[in-house]
Amino acid sequence: MTVVVETVSKSYGSVHALRDVSLRLDTGITGLLGPNGAGKTTLLSALGTVLRPDTGRVTVDGRDAYGSTAERIEIRRRLGYLPQEVGFPRSMTAFGFVEYIAVLKEWDDPRARGAEVNRVLDLVGLADRGRTRVRALSGGQRRRLSLAQALLGDPHLLVLDEPTTGVDPEQRAVLRQVLSRSGERACVLLATHQTEDIAALCDRVVVLAGGSVRFDGVVRELVESARGRVWLSDREYPGARVSWRTGTGRYRCVGGEAPPADAEPAEPAEPTLEDAYLLLVGAPAKTKAVAA
Amino acid sequence: MTAATAPARLARREAVLWQLTLLEIRRYLRHPLYLLGVALLLLSVAGMVASSGSDQSPLSAPIAPAFLMGVFGVVAAAQLAASGRRLGRGAGAVPLPERTRSLALAVAFVVPVLTAAAWLATFLVIYHVNPPADGVWWFGPLSAGHVLSMLVGTTVVSAFGGPALGLLVARWVRWRPAPLVAALLLVVAGMVTQGSDTFPRTVGLLMPWTQWSAGVTDGRAVYYGGSPQWWLVYALALCVLAVLAAMYRDPDADRPRYRVAAAVVVLIAVVSVSLAATTGVDHTRYLPAATASGS
Amino acid sequence: MSTLTPNSSWHPPSASLAEYATGQPSAVTAASVEAHLVACPECRRAVAPLAPTAVVEAGRVGLRSALQRPRAPWAVRLARRAGLSDPDAVLLTASSALRDSWIVSLVVVLGFAAAAPSFAGGLGDAAFLVIAPLVPVVGVALVYAGTEPTIEAIAGAAPYSQLRLLLLRAAAVLVTTLPLVALSALLARGGGWSMFGWLLPSLAFTAAVLALSTWVAVEVASPVVALLWTGTVCAAAFHQSAQAVVSAAVQPLYLVLAAGAAAAVAVQVRRGHTPGGIA
Lengths: 292, 295, 279
Fold this sequence. Notes:
- The complex is a heterotrimer of chains A (292), B (295) and C (279).
- Chain A is an alpha/beta fold and 292 residues long.
- Helix content of chain A is 32%, strand content 26%.
- In chain A, strands 6-7-8-3-9-10 form a six-stranded mixed sheet, with helices on both faces. Chain A has a four-stranded antiparallel sheet with strand order 2-1-4-5, covered by helices on one side. Chain A has a four-stranded antiparallel sheet with strand order 12-13-11-14.
- In chain A, helix 3 (94-104) packs across helix 4 (110-123) and helix 3 (94-104) packs parallel to helix 5.
- Chain B is mainly alpha-helical.
- Chain B has one domain.
- Chain B has a three-stranded antiparallel sheet with strand order 1-2-3, with no helix packed on it.
- In chain B, helix 2 runs parallel beside helix 5 (110-129), helix 3 packs parallel to helix 7 and helix 6 packs parallel to helix 7.
- Chain B is globular.
- Chain C has helices spanning 14-21, 27-39, 41-47, 53-68, 74-81, 86-93, 97-115, 121-131, 134-145, 149-156, 162-189, 199-213, 218-239, 251-270.
- Classes of the chains: A alpha/beta (292), B mainly alpha (295), C mainly alpha (279).
- Chains in contact: A-C, B-C.
């Protein structure tokens, strides 16, 4: 399963949501990181065959997503799409909701459909909630329900916009298991704010900011780009791009100028994905005089 | 951070309320139903210019702004109230209570009201320049107070009353098509009770909109009984009641005070509609007047 | 009642048991084997491994689904019996809008039945002509105003034909509302040609709202159509008679409107713009 995005652009009036974005995704899990307004949702919608870009092409396994209707339907038959949650049909039951989507995915035989709906509900841990109304589910449970419908039919392409938002850590571990298993056979694109999810799950990561791709490569590479630019110090260091007090009482300082040699002892820290991300897209720090 | 003093907080709240009112005014101005209403009102003005001077009864024209600002406004205001609630929920930061937002929206009804008033002014100018032919109900057969109060009551006040009804429905009824159904019921109720043989004139006067003159039937122009001046007061009372009831919905409202205010308004309404039914013109009149067995 | 004991030591031959487990034997054999199994734990243990697990598993899963599947409204169940396919039934069960539009139609019928006496004469005609064609319009507004953006976004990414979904919903609204409106016509207007003058307008307006909803929100489209029609009827009632808007001379207009709106809907949906959905 290969997805190719060629110089895709999309604007809403004067806002350029995507500028000449080009990507290639293969089987496996790719993370999509970026601040709000970076164009993540637009890109995911374009990949989900629901938002035609102004320019460029989106090709899924050789089929043009915005070419002929027949090709688009063929892509949709192998697609699982999870949009960012905006609203939810509150009076539906969990089972009813997934079954509705299953019918839209052409599961005509009621027996097979019922079995498949139960299978995906089991996968996300909502097996005993089939008859509960959506309005009685917590935010995390609704998110898991939304993910369940994307998993119907074991799709070859999974486009997921923030699947683990609001999900408690225990359930997030379950979802990570599900997603990593899907990643063995399918191409999964996962947009999220949670850098820990990316670090735990993804082989590759794409960083999107201001509508363009800032980084496209292996997670390890991105993390390494922050090496030598992160320190732990005993006090807040004004020259850092951002620094905060950690639970151990020491300050983690990321980016900016290196602390001067005669300052308080500061040792380099092991960079994390979050540090690398902050360095890549964070606003440049205002220059401040360093206290002697 | 120092705590804001009470006057400063009040001032800030008033400033926010003013900002909110301006926002609602802008939203009303941009609402498709309002814009469509304005377009059709302009058409009606063109129609009046074209036909003024012939023996159309001018007093039946006020139905145009009543429908295009009032009835359209039922749905427009309800949608603004509902979407305002959604916006407030999304923003999260707006601390204004629901009753204040209702009040701000009610103030924003100045938009349809002024539009109806503009129509009325145009209407009066047109018929001043080109007075209608004899044999219709107009200044002359009727006193200025009569004509003006019926005109204002059925145009400008309706332009407030319709949206007020929409606001009321939006606050109290959570069913989505409710405003449209309310608007249709309003029209049907008007159609059935006005100028009807089945319902006496009193029922017609109880309606939120009433017909005073029905154009020419069988060669005679009809004018219905009642006192338009008192009816104007009644219509205004209904408008105030609707807004109060909409604000009452807020669980934090000072409900006893609202109940007292509502009781006063209800009293005014009951008194004024009774006076409207019993004073003024006491029977349906025709022009030209019937000759033999008069009616 | 005496406890059942196996009849001495007779047991069904294993061939019969195997047949029973796979559901093959004749009714008589099955009945006698089953009667024996009720009383004989030994044979029950022998039968268990013979049952094909797939069938049993499917049965278990089927039961679970049947228990969890939301109960369709009675109208949909009725339609199922009349031939509506199972997938279509699921799609129509999804929203409560159809039940709501049925309730609206019922209210209209009852309203006209109750108010029939006061509907004599021109204004009564006008009132009826305002309401009758708009009932399906309100129904369409219910269906599409009730859809949530998330579910429509997900539906947009599914292979199911959006046009077919739209037609299914529209057909359901019409089937739910039109018969009841016809009934109210009977109650309010008596029989005669005027009974059906409103039918073509109602189809035309339903199509018009659907078409308009592919451009603007359905909450705007339906009031616009409804209120324009209301104004037209009122104006006609004022000047001549309300019946003028449904006279034979005017009917072809509604046919043209219906056809044009239907074509617009088809084109828009093919291009990906669905009512109530993401553009």
